[in-house]
């Protein structure tokens, strides 16, 4: 079984992609802004590619159910989990990967394979569970077809996003960049650069510079903001409040990069809190969801800095006062019924083949 780098077509390939935390700047990635994200080892999705005579996309025994004990079981399942499983993600990945290679004149051999997946990323927690499956599958395909050095690293997040767009998933590049690169990544989605190169400017930072962080999440985030937000439409229509607020959020990431490099953790805590407050002003409580807001407020009740990891469902918290404050936070989360775990950061995921596939525009 091959774990890294290229592969011969006869080997079983397994690849992982990890949950990600939006640390500073989200959701400005969708608005030509800046973000800092970190990949975490706490949760991951893994995809297994095994050579086979025909091409198989194998359903997951839990996430792609087609057999139910009763009609009520089916309906309850759909109400709680939706229609979404991983099979559609794997199929969309195959389509987008194949089309890109064909368009770029990248030769693919004719051998077939079976795809299967596992994931322990909690659903609906804003930890990028869907994109992790796509990212892991994409990585498998890179190695099965030995094209890891032919598809620029900077382009891969867009291809992963394209696969999700095939399924009507609306999202930004931040999650996919973090999951492709691994570790701690600063991203600048400046509009002119995006239009010119088709990707942002992505810089990996030393994750050892981060202070201890904690992830707070709800096991069953049923109230994760059911009201559709009008922020995107207002931004497109030139709403001055939304445009100026989103620029402020983007600038927090720029300040956050300096704070991390200088280990100014008091400043980082302040930026995290400001990030959430600006988001709340723009989106409103109904769109954010009472449960999500409660997670932030539980953290703040003990003096911890806190903000959403993504669109809701989970919160990243930092306790500037150290272990004693962490204990208070753990107690507060337990009383409120939330799970809390120390964040374990994933190292860089780029190997020698990926480094070769980095284009010269990375930090241009």
TrEMBL record:
Protein name: Glucuronokinase 1
Domain GHMP kinase N-terminal, first and last residues per copy: 96-183
Key word ATP-binding present: yes
UniProt keyword list: ATP-binding, Nucleotide-binding
InterPro entries membership: GHMP_kinase_C_dom (IPR013750), GHMP_kinase_C_sf (IPR036554), GHMP_kinase_N_dom (IPR006204), Glucuronokinase-like (IPR053034), Ribosomal_Su5_D2-typ_SF (IPR020568)
Lineage: Eukaryota, Viridiplantae, Streptophyta, Embryophyta, Tracheophyta
Keyword ATP-binding recorded: yes
Residue ranges of domain GHMP kinase C-terminal in the record: 259-333
Domain of life: Eukaryota
